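lol ok so funny story. i was supposed to be doing the assay writeup but got distracted and ended up predicting the structure for this chain instead. priorities right. anyway since i did it might as well share w the group, maybe its usefull for someone
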Amino acid sequence: MGPNPSLEPTRYAAARGSAQTLARMKTITTPSFVLEPQVAAHASEMFSVLSDVAIYEFENEPPISEEWLRTRYERLESRGPDDQSEVWLNWVIRLQDGNLVGYVQATVFQDQSAYVAYELNSRYWRRGIGSQAVQAVLEELRHRYAVSTCFAVLKDRNYRSSGLLRKLGFVLANEELTALHRDEIDEIVMVKPLVVPHVA
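and the output, tada:
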């Protein structure tokens, strides 16, 4: 349930590569859950969350081990590549009862565009958690990172994700944008413009 959540972090993930960005990346609190900046310490809990085979109906596969996931999370804590051409932002979703249930991630580029992706354990589907979490991240991207356009790339058969994205105002990209952003012929690209707040 989510566009390409397991692709390499150069395509999907989170914040600019420095401790300064990690400090700037904030916890996002909503009435239903908290979005915590993802760190390696989350790997143990998240391995269980992401081992749900139902998640991978349309693409990708579960993490191969907890250690593999921890190593990946350690790498993502850099919050971006050495050349600082991207900013990697990753949040895990923690419900009020303390359980982790998934994540939302974004890659922010210097042209004020971003990729977004998400994943949610199937026990928590159809509760509005995924759409609320993605919406919270879109607001964060708009207000704190001045993102003006968001893209999501997903398999064309992934009706759950496309439905969620449409609910949030994403639409199918035109042929030019689709050719630019997708990697495989069976992928679709969805896009949503964000109105960046004016700073006087």
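The chain is about 30% helix and 25% strand. Helices lie at 19-24, 43-50, 66-76, 129-145, 159-167, 175-181.
back to the writeup now i swear
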